[in-house]
Amino acid sequence: MPIDAYLDELFVAARDGDPAAARRLLAETEAHLRECAARLRGQGLDPEDAEREAVRRFGPVGTVTPVLRPAFRDVARLPLRALVRPLVGLAAVGAIAVGVSGVVSELFGRIWGAGFVAGDLPGVAYTAARCAVLQAPYAGLDCAQAAAEHHWGEVVEYRVVFGVLGLVLLLVWRLLPRDSALPAGLTPSLAAAAFLLAAAATGVLALNAAVQGWQGTGAWLSAVVVALPLAVVFAVAALRRMPMKPLSS
């Protein structure tokens, strides 16, 4: 890539950063690239090859622009409005993940039965009146089976409602203006931490249900199935967005 094309790409990528820092970065980058290209021309490369090699050594634009963003230690100094859009985005993704876990719970129930998803742990009992209410829609089922069917439906329905709410929040997120740049990798780091904690917490609950006879395991396991992969995805995204020093010439 020629130096001018690289600088154009860097200019576009730097627009969301601090203006003064962006100007300094562009000036320093151009000076470095042209100095490196001149040195390479002196070593026998033709001008075009020298520029391309200088750009290659400097590194992709994506490894340079994170320096325009504030450091993690400066998060507390950011105005609250700067956090609104990312927090709405995180809430949207979280709610959609809950909705997806509801779909997984539906599949678990169809494969292994309502008891696996929403059966009661040992020791849970219902009054005769409550059993009558639970059994009314499920002729032929005993109280425990009817309760599992009822609670399975609630698990799926409530989570799907959360998923729909997440889609609404996602639309709101798309409409919100970007206020200012956040530290590189902050948003995916928060998402990774949140989903990892969710996976750990629901994993413990799933294990607790499993050792007591598997009843109700699926409700928690469905959350783990969704949260753990998302934690990995966001962790990788956070690592990729962390600032990296350009390669020396």
Q: pLDDT below 50 for ≥5 consecutive residues: which ranges? A: 245-249
The SS-based structural class is mainly alpha
Head-to-tail CA distance between termini: 16 Å
The largest sheet, given as strand count, sense and whether it forms a barrel, is: none
Helix content: over 70%
Average pLDDT for all residues:
87
Order of helices and strands: HHHHHHHHH
Count, helices: 9
Structure report:
Helices cover 71% and strands 0% of the residues. The chain is elongated, with a radius of gyration of 27 Å. The model is unreliable at 245-249 (pLDDT under 50). The chain has 249 residues and is an all-alpha fold. Helix 2 packs across helix 3 (47-58), helix 4 (81-112) runs antiparallel to helix 7 and helix 8 runs antiparallel to helix 9 (217-241). The protein folds into 2 domains: 3-68, no CATH class; 78-241, no CATH class.
Q: What tags apply to this protein structure?
A:
0% strand; 2 domains; 249 residues; 9 helices; mainly alpha; elongated
Task: Give the topology, please.
Layout: H1 3-13, H2 19-42, H3 47-58, H4 81-112, H5 114-118, H6 128-135, H7 143-175, H8 186-211, H9 217-241
